[in-house]
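User: What would this chain look like folded?
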Amino acid sequence: MARKNFVSQLRERNEEAVAHWVAVYQKKIFRLAYAFCGDREEALDIVQETFMRAYEKMGYLKEETNIEHWLYQIARHLCIDRYRRQKSQKRGAGINHYPDALTLIKQEWPMEKNSELRQLIGEAMEQLSPRQKLVFILKQINELKFDEIAQVLGIAPGTVKSLHFKALRHLRHHLQPLLGGEK
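Assistant: Here's the prediction, encoded as structure tokens.
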């Protein structure tokens, strides 16, 4: 399906195009939402709300619109809104809230270190700013390039790289005890 033709079909709310659109992007949006909020049901709610809002605005799509980036922007706003609403509540997210797709640690760990690792990553992720967390998730889990993240977030690529570097530095620092260094 040609890109411009696909956008036109979406604007016209062609059922086949909309079904294809959801099938292609729902897993990507879910990975972002789940990694950000750490709760499966909440992530599913964010995915549903993302597609509902996008569907409502579909008639305004321009031919040159990057649909994936547009969906990420909607999901990003929803994630940050939920984060702000829950900020005052202690969420106590362990790593079980973060998918194993956090491939920050790609080597095999002994079983006794797995639960400690999960706990430390969860704690470290909760301490990141919302922007650092989003950049980290989009880069490490959704595997977007820095330029793509910059487009999604509407910020300069240099800012994206800086936020990613700060997130990695924070996570490394937080994980030092488990990695064999001092905190």
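The chain has two domains: 1-91, 93-183. If you want, I can go into more detail on any region.
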